Amino acid sequence: MNSRTETILRTERPWGWFETVCEMAGSKVKRIHVRPGQQISLQTHQHRSEHWIVVAGTAQVTLGARAFALLCGQHCDIACGQVHRLANSGPDGLEIIEVQYGSRLDEDDIVRLQDDYGRA
Questions:
Q1: Which one is the CATH code of 10-114: 3.90.930.60, 3.40.50.720, 3.30.70.1280, 2.60.120.10?
Q2: Measuring CA to CA, how many Å separate 84 from each of 6, 7, 78, 100?
Q3: For range 4-31, the mean pLDDT
Q4: In this predicted model, what pLDDT tens digit does every residue of 77-98 receive, in sequence order?
């Protein structure tokens, strides 16, 4: 059996952090941590779709006009162009695995509609 050690770089954000776990043509996998009481931008993407899987905590998800909770082990799909937000209203950290797929997967594909940290 081969053992492989990789260095995964953590990217800090005002709401928490993310790590890119795997990236290849047309897809990327991230581990995302949202601190208690924080949320990502209300945003959309023009070139990618996403799939979120909650692995720790409870996610407060906004998809278009809908808002709902996802518990550990639950998941949702975000279509390309769909307005969305991830928030953590719980007392502990929220972690999700995000699978991105599409023609463009860089951070420049984020269109921020509202942001608590002055980036919109």
A1: 2.60.120.10
A2: 31, 30, 7, 14
A3: 90
A4: 999 999 999 999 999 999 999 9
